[in-house]
Specification:
Blueprint: H1 20-35, H2 48-55, H3 59-63, H4 67-84, H5 87-92, E1 109-110, E2 119-120, H6 121-127, H7 130-141, H8 145-148, H9 161-166, H10 184-202, E3 204-207, H11 210-217, H12 224-227, E4 236-245, H13 246-250, H14 255-258, E5 270-277, E6 289-297, E7 303-311, H15 316-330, E8 333-334, H16 350-357, H17 360-363, E9 371-373, E10 398-400, E11 403-411, E12 434-441, E13 444-446
Parallel strand pairs: 3-4, 3-9
Antiparallel strand pairs: 1-2, 4-5, 5-6, 6-7, 8-9, 10-13, 11-12
Length: 472
């Protein structure tokens, strides 16, 4: 792609030749293609169930919709990530003004004056996080957690944030891309991978414990009238947790069998988290995009994971992002512990990182600055006698998804975490002994005293899950 006409990016003082780094990157790419390490299988065509999961409509409905609007959303996110990652300064050193790039297009390569070779913005963007990625890899290798269990998509701890995010900044992003020969689909895929990897490294990591993950991703999202009140705690937020099968998120008890041949919606595809981006005031824009992070099996039987850009909304992937945003807005998250300083080794060196990684504080998220969901249910309200509210009688227990209430009484506590007074009753005083807040409620069984409905489906995460071979 040529540079926009308004760019004044003269590079005439430099020789018109490939740098050794660029040439080496091209040779590495060719070698990988020849050796088969990188040649992925052609992606299967997405089914209507897949597109409904990710975008909220069938392929025909999406084709008939506002494709231009979706492309604008991609472009806005791309240019925003470039700016937030400090690419303005990088390009300024080349005599290029980032602001001169068209705001409504995903310009990923350009050719400054006096150069015979395009400048690949995806490579420059990935390079901004090379050192952080290397530090995360060193941190991971300092313990046996991943070496003993390379199939880890469950049993996460907060300290796995680095292992989780470095895999999203794919190695291929550090090599020049053949833009002139790429199909529009491949070019767009490259840009989306670059955005996802960069956003993961700019994000503040948040961890949802295993016993809460299923309840969170399957919750009914907050009501529309309250979504404008959602505020993220940082410009970018990474949420991660143990894997939850996508059919469970779809909410159909028959989905494991019914969707077995789909690309996204299948019993072996797992929701592992998401990346959310906020406006300047912390809001999530109504027409913006987030990323849902999915793990899925490849032809070798191994799992890899990546971030898929999806809109917020009432479709399955959009609901997951809205639930993340609601918990980030309305629930408590514990601060990361402080990792003890070591008297040995310079900060950031391999030895210092290895020593830090072995501490309990680092595994609890201290090294990566991970916040952990600290869910506390509200104080129970007085029970009413059964049958007082009327309604039909039940034969079986029923399950209610996680959900939100918007004027829930929460007891006010002192510095020792003790209630200062009653939450309910004649002596409860709003603003003194309790306050009203928006609150998430976990998935619950209604009438647990009744038997379970016959034929209920139980889901189990597939074992033997590993990351893509090229990322090991």
């Amino acid at each position: 792609m040529s540079a926009p006409a308004e760019k004044e990016a003269s590079m005439s003082d430099e020789p018109n030749r490939l740098s050794p780094e660029t040439l080496r990157g091209m040779l590495d790419a060719i070698e990988d293609e020849m050796s088969g390490r990188r040649a992925p299988e052609p992606p299967r065509e997405a089914s209507d169930e897949d597109t409904a999961f990710l975008f909220g409509g069938t392929k025909a409905e999406l084709d008939a919709g506002d494709g231009a609007g979706q492309n604008r959303a991609y472009a806005v996110l791309w240019n925003r990530v470039l700016a937030d990652a400090g690419m303005g300064e990088v390009l300024a050193r080349m005599g290029v003004d980032l602001a001169s790039f068209p705001e409504d297009t995903t310009a990923a390569a350009f050719r400054p004056d006096g150069r015979d070779v395009d400048i690949d913005l995806t490579v420059l963007l990935a390079e901004q996080f090379r050192e952080a990625k290397a530090a995360d890899e060193r941190f991971e290798k300092a313990t046996d957690r991943w070496r003993k269990t390379p199939g880890r998509v469950q049993g996460y701890v907060p300290g796995d944030a680095g292992s989780f995010r470095w895999s999203l900044l794919y190695r291929e992003l550090f090599r020049p891309f053949w833009w002139s020969y790429a199909s529009p689909e491949d070019a767009n895929d490259r840009i989306m991978k670059a955005i996802g990897g960069a956003a993961a490294y700019m994000a503040v990591p948040h961890f949802i414990p295993a016993d809460l993950a299923l309840d969170v991703v399957t919750s009914t999202p907050p009501a529309r009238e309250y979504r404008g009140e959602l505020r993220l705690p940082a410009r970018y937020v990474l949420v991660f947790h143990d894997g939850v099968p996508t059919p469970v998120v779809m909410g159909d008890d028959d989905t494991v069998d019914r969707f077995g041949e789909n690309y996204i919606v299948s019993g072996e595809t797992l929701v592992l988290g998401g990346i959310l981006a906020a406006e300047e005031d912390g809001r999530i824009s109504a027409d913006g995009l987030g990323f849902i992070i999915l793990g899925r099996r490849d032809s070798s039987g191994e799992y890899g994971w990546r971030a898929f850009p999806v809109p917020y909304g009432d479709h399955p992937a959009g609901r997951v992002l809205l639930n993340y945003a609601a918990l980030l807005s309305w629930e408590n998250w514990s601060a990361p512990p402080k990792v003890p300083s070591s008297p040995h080794g310079k900060e950031g060196t391999s030895n210092q990182i290895k020593r830090a990684a072995r501490t309990p504080e680092a595994q609890a998220g201290g090294w990566h600055g991970v916040r952990v969901l600290d869910y506390r249910p509200p104080e129970p309200a007085p029970e009413r006698p059964r049958g007082e509210s009327g309604g039909r009688s039940l034969r079986y227990r029923s399950e209610r998804r996680g959900h939100y209430k918007y004027r829930v009484r929460i007891g006010i506590r002192d510095e020792q975490d003790r209630l200062v007074g009653p939450v309910y009753g004649a002596n409860a005083v709003e603003g003194v002994t309790f306050e009203r807040v928006k609150k998430w409620f976990r998935r619950t069984n209604v009438r647990e005293d009744l038997p379970e409905r016959p034929g209920s489906t139980v889901y189990q995460v597939t074992e033997g899950v590993t990351r893509e071979a090229e990322e090991r």
